[in-house]
TrEMBL record:
The protein's required cofactors: pyridoxal 5'-phosphate
Protein name listed in UniProt: Tryptophan synthase beta chain-like PALP domain-containing protein
Organism: Cymbomonas tetramitiformis
Family matches, as SUPFAM superfamilies: Tryptophan synthase beta subunit-like PLP-dependent enzymes
Domain of life: Eukaryota
InterPro entries associated with the record: Cys_Synth/Cystath_Beta-Synth, P-phosphate_BS, TrpB-like_PALP, TrpB-like_PALP_sf
GO molecular function: transferase activity
């Protein structure tokens, strides 16, 4: 019997050896009947997200090029969270010192905790300046420290390379070559650029769909505003999307291999994440909800009848416990259900709480 990497069921040398080969699950109760909608569950990577793939690839390619070594290099990266966790995990596995830079925002709490648990240091930058501010601080930090190295996830070609060589081929194999739509949110743009290029080469008729927050449709030339779909919609036009058709205006319509740029609001993303949890047993985060919302819209199109739609589910919903929308109703209920201190009276009724009678 083999494991999910197709290797013998025995131990591996490193946690990085089990990055990739994530499962794909068919949605049963959430989308239009007569259409196959498949979720690629990237939370099954050991660090909990799709970003494990690029962290591994960028670091290992730098090692092959003799750019970095655990005895002399500190790895530094700016991130909204999941890449930072992937980098911190990989750095811990390989023995590197690591610094993760992220905006000082409450939804980052889980990311902060996890990066620290992996042994990385975390530098928090001005909340009002968002990711652009974190990137400015990264530049200053690198300029001041010659022995620091950054994977530069927004620019490093080894980011999309991870998806050309692994994510795309996995999807093609899992679908046995039958895939008509590929949907992914855009953070760095590496997943769409890499997996999209591989899949489009395999089937030029396939439709590639990018997803961004409704509040930040910069990929079609609109303004960025605040949103809570963490991991996508950083507020600028990523290099890996621009290079799909260099020099072309960012506007509605196709761009290179991308056929459409669609969107989901913060509220819709959380509603769809909840739908997947309650209807499919899939505990996913807001960016997964955004991709699922777009997949459902496409599945409802007449031309999608009988087709196969694949969307990337980047991370687990458990990573967003401090999200202002995703867990708000349940956390409010839990606060009432589990008072602190608890009622320790020996005369207390046997049943202290019944969630079916709660108002959510």
């Amino acid at each position: 019997m083999g494991n999910r990497n197709g290797k013998p069921s025995t131990y591996v040398e490193s946690v990085l050896d089990v990055v990739g080969e994530t499962p794909m699950v068919k949605l049963q109760r959430s989308t239009q009947p007569g259409v196959t909608v498949l979720a690629k569950l990237e939370m099954q990577n050991p660090g909990g997200s799709v970003k494990d793939r690029i962290a591994k690839c960028m670091i290992e390619e730098a090692e092959k090029a003799n750019k970095i070594h655990p005895e002399k290099t500190t790895i530094v990266e700016a991130t909204s969270g999941n890449t930072g966790i992937g980098v911190a995990m990989a750095a811990a596995s390989k023995g590197y010192k690591c610094i993760i830079i992220m905006p000082q925002l409450p939804p980052m709490q889980e990311r902060y905790l996890i990066c620290r648990k992996f042994g990385a240091h975390v530098h928090l930058t001005a909340a009002a300046k968002g990711m652009p501010g974190a990137l400015d601080y990264l530049k200053q930090t690198l300029a001041a420290n010659a022995d620091y190295w950054c994977p530069t996830q927004f620019e490093n070609p080894d980011n999309p390379k991870a998806h050309v060589e692994n994510t795309g081929p996995e999807i093609w194999r899992q679908c046995k070559g039958k895939i008509d739509y590929f949907i992914a949110g855009v953070g760095t743009g590496g997943t769409v650029n890499g997996a999209g290029r591989f899949l489009k080469k395999k089937n030029p008729k396939m439709k590639i769909i990018c997803v961004e927050p409704t509040e930040s449709r910069v990929l079609v030339g609109e303004q960025h505003t605040k949103h809570t779909v963490l991991g996508i919609g950083a507020g600028f036009q990523p290099k890996f999307i621009e290079e799909l058709e260099p020099g072309a205006a960012f506007k509605e319509g196709a761009r290179g291999i991308v056929d459409e740029f669609l969107h989901a609001s913060s509220e819709q993303s959380c509603e769809w994440a909840t739908t997947l949890a309650k209807n499919e047993g899939l505990l996913v985060g807001p960016s997964s909800g955004a991709a699922a919302k777009v997949a459902a819209e496409i599945a409802a199109r007449p031309e999608a009848k009988g087709k196969t739609i694949v969307f990337i589910s980047p991370s687990s919903g458990i990573r967003y416990l401090n999200h202002p929308l995703l867990w708000a109703d349940v956390k409010g209920e839990a606060a009432a259900a589990l008072p602190a201190p608890p009622n320790m009276s020996p005369d207390a009724p046997l049943l202290g709480w019944d969630s079916s009678k709660a108002k959510m």
